[in-house]
Amino acid sequence: MFQSRVFASILKRNKGASIINNAITNLRGTKTTPFNHLRDIHQQQNPSSRSFLYGFKSLSKGHNCQYVPSSTRKMSTVAASVGSESKEGLRLLVNGGPKAQKMVGIWLFGSAAWVFSMVILGGVTRLTRSGLSMTDWKFTGGLPPLSNEDWLIEFEKYKQSPEYKIVNKGMNVEDFKFIYWMEYAHRMWGRGLGIIFALPFSLFLRKGYVTVRLGAKLCGLFALGAGQGLIGWWMVKSGLEEPASEYAQPRVSPYRLAAHLTSAFVIYSGLFWTALSVVMPEPPAESLAWVRGAAKVKRLALPVSLIVGVTAVSGAFVAGNDAGHAFNTFPKMGDTWIPDDIFDLKPVIRNFFENTSTVQVICLYNLSILEL
C-alpha cells in the first residue's frame, strides 16, 4: 500500500510511464538495472528528490531505516563539529574532568576568602593598636605564653619598646594579654593559610590535576604568600624603632604598611582570578562573541580597578600617617574644599605619601567617585 502511494507520487512528476513500469519489474525481482536509469533521469528533472529516492530504495530492499533529509544531516554535522570544537577549544587549567575542576575551584575560592579574612583581622589589629605587642618574629611561629612566668617575660620585652614608654606606660599584664592575643592570632592565621594552601596543592599535583600553566601561577602565589610574612615583620620592626623626636608617637612606616596591604590585595586578587579561570575556562581567541564581551567588560573593569587600587593604597598611607585625625569633616576639609597645605612638603612627590592632608584628600575623594 505504501509503495503504491509512492509510485503514484512519482508518476505525477514524471511522464515516462514505461520507465516506471520497468522500475516496478526490477523491484519484483528482475535483476536488470532500469531502476538506476530511472534514478538518473528523475534526478535530472527534479534534483531535490534525490535524497527521497535514496530513502525509498532502502525501504524497497526491506531495510528498517528512517529518512533524514541531506540538508538536515549537513546541519547536524556542522553543529556537532562546532560543539566539539568549542568544548575542545577551552583553555582548561585542570586535568581530570569536571569533578577535579570543581575541587580545585572550591579550594582556590576558599583560599581567597581566607586572605580576605586576614585583611579584616589585620585592620582590627591595627585599630586596637596591637601590632607592636610582639617584639620578635619567627618564620614558623611558636606557642603562646602558657604560664604566668612566660607572660611576664613577654611583657618585659614589650616594656622596652617605644610604644610602651610613650603611649602605654603603666599598662598592666591583663591589658597586655589582649593586644598580644590579637597580634598572635593575626600571625598564626597567616601561617594557617600557608598550610591550607600547600597541602591541597601537593595532593592535586600528585593526582595530576594541575596543568603546567596553573602550577606556575600557584607557585607564584605561594611565594607571594611566604613573602607576605617577611613584609609584615619588616613593617612591625619599623614601629619598634625610636621615633624621630620625643613628641612623636611610635608607629610603623607608612611605606611598609602600604607594601604589606598592597601585597595582600595582590594575593587575594590573584587567587580569586585564578579560581574564576578554573571554574570558567577561557574560550579560544577565535571566539568572536567572547572577544567582544571581554572588550566590553575590560572598558569598565580597568578604570574601576585603577580607582579601587589607588583608594586602597592611599588608605594605607592614611593609616600609616594617622591622617584620619587631620580633618573630621567631609566633603569639605575644615572650611575649604581643598586644604591649603597639600603641597607643603619638598620635594612635591613626598606630599602624596607623607602629607596628612594630601593622602586624606586622595582617599576620600576616590571613595566618592566609587560611590557615584
From TrEMBL:
InterPro entries: COX15/CtaA_fam (IPR003780), HemeA_Synthase_type2 (IPR023754)
Membrane-spanning segments: 104-124, 188-206, 218-236, 256-279, 300-320
Catalyzed chemical reaction(s): Fe(II)-heme o + 2 A + H2O = Fe(II)-heme a + 2 AH2
Organism encoding this protein: Populus alba x Populus x berolinensis
Protein name according to UniProt: Cytochrome c oxidase assembly proteinX15-like
Compartments where located: Membrane
Swiss-Prot/TrEMBL GO biological process terms: heme A biosynthetic process
Pfam families membership: COX15-CtaA
Pathway: Porphyrin-containing compound metabolism; heme A biosynthesis; heme A from heme O: step 1/1
GO molecular function per UniProt: heme A synthase activity; metal ion binding; oxidoreductase activity, acting on NAD(P)H, heme protein as acceptor
Membrane topology: Multi-pass membrane protein
Keywords on record: Heme biosynthesis, Iron, Membrane, Metal-binding, Oxidoreductase, Transmembrane, Transmembrane helix
One Gene Ontology cellular component annotation held by this UniProt entry: mitochondrial inner membrane
Cofactor(s) listed in the protein's UniProt record: heme b
Isomerase found in the keyword field: no
Secretion signal, residue range per the UniProt entry: none
